[in-house]
Amino acid sequence: MQQTKSLLFHINAFFRQGTKWATCLALLASGSCLSLHLQAARKGDRPNVIVVITDDQGYGDFGFNGNPILRTPHLDALEAASAKMTQYYVSPVCAPTRACLMTGRYNYRTRCIDTYIGRAMMDPEEKTLAERLFEQGYATGIFGKWHMGDNYPLRAIDQGFEEALVLRGGGIGQPSDPIGAEGKYTDPTLFHNGKAVEMKGYCTDIYFDHALRFMQQSKERNRPFFVYLPTNAPHGPFHDVPQKEYDYYKSINLANDQFPQSKGHRLPQNADLDKRARIFAMIDNIDQNIGKLKQGLESMELLDNTLILFMVDNGPNGRRYVAGHQGMKSHVHEGGIRSPLLLHWPARLKPGTSSDTVTAHIDIAPTILDACGIRSSKGPEMDGRSFLGFLTGRKPLWTDRMVVIQSHRGDTPVRYHHFAARTQRWKLLHASGFGNESFEGEPRFELYDMDLDAYEENNLASTFPHIVQYMKSAYDAWFDDVSSTRPDNYAPPSILIGSPKENPTILTRQDWRHLKGRPWGADSNGEWWVEFLHAGSYEVILHDKNATAPDAVTLTIGEQEWSQSVNESQGTFSFQIAISTPGKKKIKANLSRGTNVMGPHQIEIRK
């Protein structure tokens, strides 16, 4: 009876795997996939895995990294009880970090190269950590921020997660918010397995509560679990934060002169202290949830053999204390790309064990697979390496390498633009600005000896030109490699329309290809690159957020066009259309107001 229940459970799980369900069915038919699940469930030594990654929390936003004001007692206790990698790097912004984390590959291989307007969609042919672990019998759940595509086949539930409770886009408060639930950190509308659900409570609390419930259910089903907990806090907006914690931080002095400073990198004194109090309130709440997570695992008797990894996704969202380093979110100096990395696993890792080996987000997936005893897994080759041996005493074969971190705005990466390259000793960077799509003139390289100059105070580029040239050549080889991963390497993947996996499809400005105006401004317009799976009839509803009614509305899909006049103020415009031929098409809508033409807020398409 128990095996029958397990069989039914896995059949249901396979069908929820989106684009790759056919492969799972084939494995099921042969018996091999079910065998893997049952074998894995019987393996008592396989750990559960939890990855917690916070959004825009900086390297210095912890008591254990010297912050004298922020209250992080539970994270401080976790750090004291954990092993850690002390030179761990992430990307300067969020979506690229997440793509690297989920695939073990440089994000430039995955089509996820930026954070918005169609550049933060990961190719569905990439194989995620969740998919790899699911194949080995793990229950897989995500609770929080996905940020690599909001539509089929790009969603978390299409990419290996059996259960997903997520927000859309890059954060609550962005144009991807559900209409009528904009900017709600408290009582948000989230998406549970693809369906919008009105929730009660503060968003971070909701994620941790549902994650703990998922863990309990997985235990009852005798399955190890992989839980991904990517919070959207302390990312802005900052209007809706935990009140009690906000009141506390408002009552104390948060000025920069209260924080330790490093030589040559003193912080400006004109910080927005109210904003800082709100950010600290969100971090305080995260810390409380870490305590709740650990307590929940203890009550389930799962703590000992659960591997918890804690990290941040990039530097802090503001100029504040970063443990003596310089930089913040979007920067390629240490303060923008350095993250703590805690690994708590009482069954295997001795508290206080550490390694200063240079590691990065690309190393997380192979390290977790190593910890789970998974020696091989079909899929694209990973760029990362397992560093687990540095913490368990079985030192791995590890030749020095160069890790490259690069992110900037634009449709296509630009050679030498806003990057950092790091070996064990040296760091070469060109801080040309994340917000620019390119740079002018020759690159202005900076070179630092990180063994002697951890705070990047002495630029040695002119002193050691041969090191600059060596690292520049290695960077060139890396850039050529990642840029040639697939044909049309940086084109965004298509959103699929007309699948029963997602109906209706909601298109938002998060994933449109920007054409004019400010990307998310009232004056902007763009187009969505989609693929219609079937010809036939569709209902298309344009949602408008402008207070002034348009004079006319035009909808264009491929070579077909529909239009209607507007007689009175209204927020939605409905079209009954017929798509004559399936295939790849571009969708664009024009809302004309006199001489101004702008795009819709969102588009809803029903088959």
Describe, in plain words, how this protein is organized in 3D.
This protein has 4 domains: 1-42; 44-392, Alkaline Phosphatase, subunit A, CATH 3.40.720; 403-482, Arylsulfatase, C-terminal domain, CATH 3.30.1120; 495-606, Sandwich (Jelly Rolls). It contains 13 helices and 28 strands. The two termini are 40 Å apart.
Topology (elements, then pairings):
Elements lengths: L1 H14 L5 H10 L1 H11 L5 E7 L18 H8 L2 E3 L2 E2 L4 H10 L25 H7 L3 E7 L17 E5 L21 E4 L2 E4 L4 H18 L4 E6 L12 H8 L22 H27 L6 E7 L21 H4 E2 L2 E3 L9 E2 L3 E2 L3 H8 L17 H4 L10 E4 L12 E4 L3 E5 L15 E4 L15 H18 L12 E3 L7 E4 L4 E4 L8 E8 L3 E8 L8 E6 L2 E6 L6 E8 L3 E11 L2 E3 L3 E5 L1
Parallel strand pairs: 1-8, 1-9, 2-12, 3-13, 4-5, 4-8, 18-21
Antiparallel strand pairs: 2-11, 3-10, 5-6, 6-7, 9-11, 14-15, 15-16, 16-17, 19-28, 20-21, 21-26, 22-25, 22-28, 23-24, 23-26, 26-27
Helix pairs in contact: 4-9, 7-9, 8-9
Low-confidence stretches: 1-43
Give me the number of helical elements: 13
Count all strands and give the number: 28
Q: What is the average of the pLDDT values?
A: 92
At CATH's second level, what is the architecture of the largest domain?
3-Layer(aba) Sandwich
What structural class do the secondary elements suggest?
alpha+beta
Helix content: 10-25%
End-to-end distance: 40 Å
Question: Can you describe this structure in just a few lines?
Answer:
The protein has 13 helices and 28 strands.
Question: Any descriptors?
Answer:
about 600 residues; Alkaline Phosphatase, subunit A; Arylsulfatase, C-terminal domain; ten-stranded mixed β-sheet
